[in-house]
Amino acid sequence: MPGTHTPAPATDRPSPLPARSLPHPSRTRPGNLEFSPFRGVRYAPGHIGSLESAVASSPSPLASGRTAGPRDLPAHSPRRLLLPDRPSGEPSPAHHGASERLRDWLRTDVLRLDPTPVMYAYEQHGPDGPQRGLIAALRLPTRPGRVLPHRSADPSVAADRMKRMRMLGAQPEPVLLTHRGGDLVARLLDTVTAGEPLCRARTADGARHSLWAVADPGDWDRVNADLSDRRLLIADGHHRYLAYHYLRDRQIAGATHGPVLLVDETRYPLEPRPLHRVLPGIRLDEFLASLPDPCALRPVAGPPGSGAAALATALDALAAVGADRPACLVGDGLRYLLATDFEPPGPCPAVEAAAARPGAPGTEPRLHHDPAGAAADAERSRGTVLIPRAPSYRKVRASAENTLLLPNGSLSFAPKPPLGLVLRLLHGV
After folding, report:
1. For residue 100, which of 73, 80, 77 has the smallest C-alpha distance?
2. Is the confidence at residue 225, as pLDDT, over 90?
3. Which end of the chain is more exposed for a tag (fewer CB within 10 A), N or C?
């Protein structure tokens, strides 16, 4: 029952973690994967008026000015379970308030714990296209090779995610994994989604989301028979996945598994999208002087004095590079240079090496989906903007299978599921 959930006490602080990175594929034969049902925690629409008002669009890593805190959010926003309750910069900003909030929502029936373990069929239709997949609890592999990261992950960020999950006593959102094929799972999803869903929601971007229960143990067996020997690519959630491993390594109750959303890339392909970075306060000439040799950058000729026109010319030059050739732009909002033909696909390694160097306080990178917004930010902050072109999904997967990882924060995938449809408790399940 919901009242049986007991988050970790406020005094139970995890000790420092080793600087562990995501597991990489190995040449030894890895063990098979194992997927299990779990008792999900979901919103009870009758107690909050509307599920749509509670379910949030997927959290974004992008900077957009002041960071929202709990007081800026609707009363039952799932984001309230992720954010620290103290302003940034205060000492020891633990996440104990979120744990108390989750316990209160379970006690007052804002959230409900499903009565029996199930897997969940998930579907969305929205501006990024349709997506259908299966949510289950993945037993975390002890050997690398089955779950492939496509980019690096910061151990310190993962450690903070681990602390949040431990204090919350829950894993609040699934890691998005893709697989190739799986006819049994595809037929299962076709059958289940033809029935009445457990819940529906529409997020602010207009996307419609639905969730169904997969309650037949025979169906769970078919999922494992179909997917246990496949190689899965982490499309979204590298830090969450590493945090899962940190929890398991510390022998936290319930942490042998972590929730994942499994999507067939052949039926519902995800689109890689570049993330554009701004280095505020770092002048373009200063940045170029820090680039290691050799780094082939050629200026892009554009109309003087017009940021919008200069960006349009630079984007045309970027688009003119052959689709199979990696390329990226470096600029300051008024002038740009183009880098091409580097390996691995993704941002230019030389540019990345310079961008990764520690800077002065206030010069931390800011991320944008929109190149125009990134360019305007760079011009306004007298900084440098990096505008990469996203590699194809095929190249991202091939690089991951060969352990060639993209830099952290270089691209994202769409579509993604929203936060708040289903959570997994660590304790009492």
Report:
1. 80
2. yes
3. N
